[in-house]
Amino acid sequence: MLVASVLAALTISTALPSAAQDQTLPINSRLISNFKVGSDQTRFGAFEFIGGLELSSPSSMLGAMSAIRLSADRQRFLGVMDTGFWYAGRFERGPNGELTGIADFSVASMLDADGESSEEKWRVDAEGLAVRGDEVLVSFERRSRVDVYPADAPGRSRPTGTVPLQIPLRELRNNRGLEAIMVAPATSPLAGEVVVVSERSLDANGDIYAAVLTGPKKGVFFVKRHPPYDVTDGDFLPNGDLLLLERRFSIAGGIGMRIRRIDASRLGAGNLVDGPVVLEADFGDQIDNMEGLDVSEDEDGGVFVTLVSDDNHSILQRNLVLEFRYVGDDG
């Protein structure tokens, strides 16, 4: 997970280049006490809901949150917006660790290799975020790439390099490309390696392009697609298994989300992977366009899953932060 110095990079006021000048945003937080609308149920399959927030701001900069990563103490966070911005801040928590608010929320433009920012979404459609040692990795969807930023100050830095994609560019569909990027934990057969999964770039069998980008097992693999769901993010559990966040939307069926658990031993070049659904929700629950997922641990070894939504800067959608304790299939 992230170290506090990574997350401080965007929240400490410093003299930044004009293109990356950070902005502190006022954030209003409304508590979400129940995940299921009209019910005090807390257990949902392998998950226990522990609270959430609906965020709003008088600033138009809030929104489009695509990915999030928490610090080791679960207090600070760093994320990317698909409009080409970093965001960062600090969670305020109650006595039992539940979310109560957000402080020190700021945004900064993402810089390209020339040190420039852009308002052209096809250039800056950041969808995924991961941390590998002293590097922050960001996956971009339309101009497909994985850029590498220094972890000590990503909001003030241009990329220091890129990670080869393994997936042929011709197979990455416009606006359906690289969506999730994760670094496998030491407990995984892919320990320390980088994994990406596309949103809905499909092979001839209708399965989703994915890849291990580094290490001896690098190469393309596939994730079984179950329409109408598409991948929006993912992260590894401490035991090395992968959680994939997926979303569906239609005018008739509305919006839905689910999380699949993928066996870590199956991740590798040439494989087709699938796994059980461990959480599923719809508009009867407190969800929106759920885009980001992070797995974190507390000092007692408890495992938590934090989700964020992308409101697409629409007045019809919401910016949500939801947290669950992962208790496993056996509780």
> What is the gyration radius calculated from CA atoms?
18 Å
Structural class: mainly beta
Distance between the termini: 24 Å
**What helical percentage do the residues reach?**
under 10%
Mean pLDDT: 90
Shape: globular
- By DSSP (H or I, 4+ residues per run), the number of helices equals 2
List SSEs in N-to-C order.
Answer: HEEEEEEEEHEEEEEEEEEEEEEEEE
Q: Count every beta strand, where a strand is a DSSP E run of 2 or more residues.
A: 24
Strand content: over 45%
* Poorly predicted spans: 1-20
In a nutshell, what does this entry contain?
This protein is 3% helix and 46% strand.
Task: Describe the protein in words.
The chain is mainly β and 331 residues long. It is 3% helix and 46% strand. The chain has helices at 4-8, 121-124, and strands spanning 23-24, 28-32, 43-44, 47-56, 65-70, 76-81, 85-93, 99-109, 126-132, 135-140, 145-150, 161-162, 178-183, 194-202, 208-212, 219-223, 230-236, 242-250, 254-262, 272-273, 277-282, 290-297, 303-309, 319-326. Strands 2, 3, 4, 22, 23 and 24 form a six-stranded antiparallel β-sheet that branches. The longest helix is centred in the N-terminal third of the chain and has 5 residues, at 4-8.
